[in-house]
Amino acid sequence: MLEKLKKLAVRREELEARLADPAVYGGGNLAAIQRELKELTPVVEAAEALEAAERRRKEAESLLRDPELKVLAQEELSAAKAEAERLRGELKRLLLPRDPSDGRNVVLEIRAGVGGEEAALFAGELLRMYTMYAQRRGWRTEILSASETELGGIKEAVVLVEGEDVFSRLKFESGVHQVKRVPQTESGGRIQTSTATVAVLPEAEEVDVEIDPGDLQIDTYRSSGAGGQHINKTESAIRITHLPTGTVVTCQDERSQYKNRDKAMRVLRSRLYQREREKRNAAAASERRSQVGCGWRSEKIRTYRFLQSQVVEHRIGLTVYRLGAVLSGDLDEIIDALAAADTAERLRNEDG
Fold first, then answer.
1. How far lies 248's CA from each of 160, 199, 240, 271, in Å?
2. Torsions phi, psi for 127 (to 5 deg)
3. Which residue of 148, 173, 242, 243 has the fewest CB atoms within a 10 Å radius of its CB?
4. Segment 19-56, tens digit of pLDDT
5. Which residues are within 8 A (CB) of 99 and not within 5 positions of it... i.e. 6 or more apart?
């Protein structure tokens, strides 16, 4: 590990030197250099801190022979050992292989599952929750497509989320979300269980996925909103079918056929990119269909219990007693816990 850390320190110096070169700012490599430097800096700084802790440890050990300084030296030795142990653990965490998609934007797909109109209303609340979370993080959101119900729920919505390290935070949200509450439409006061599915796809760029135009079937049709509202008299809505995989993407939010086609292609590229990711690492990621499930209650990853004002994260046994805050976008406590559990599992696998 020591040799690797030395190489990383040299690499950071190279990147800093390149940033000092005015020629870099005229090319397209600036963002890539800044991104790599941002990833390297915490590792190099932790390594330098570990070296300092080891020097303190050695100095304290040498002072143990002095009777007058022995007590102070023992205290310093104990503190230096503890700091060195902490930093070694931090370095192991920092040196874990990083998901190359962590820095990407996200195509977020939310669909109503089991529960009829109540499931659609819940899907709409999840859409609001993620939109508000994005605002808290300083990310930008753009709805690529949405299908609303007459009562204001969401049958399905596809949202582009852009910002720093979006996928690294939202990737833990994929799966079936369950809600337990008394629906507004329930006169008998009975608690109903409904579900919505969430899929988090890293946004793909054109260079990531090569799509043969001959593999696409593109259909146009007239779009309409919930209950027949906002009827568009022109055929601006787009349905793109990727024939080799059977993947279908529709978009009707824009009045321009070209804008709808562009949005649909962004979603299609991301879905195909995700399929390739899963093929390359089948052990770490399941097929997209099993990722989002079909909405059955048994596949739930998280339950929102309104009567107890609880959010239960089933994968790690975490219960948060702030339902209202979570649904208003305060997700960091849950996502931080999921990220920590994921890191701990990966460290166990590395040690094993």
1. 17, 15, 6, 10
2. -60, -45
3. 243
4. 877 766 655 577 777 777 888 888 899 999 999 999 99
5. 167, 168, 171
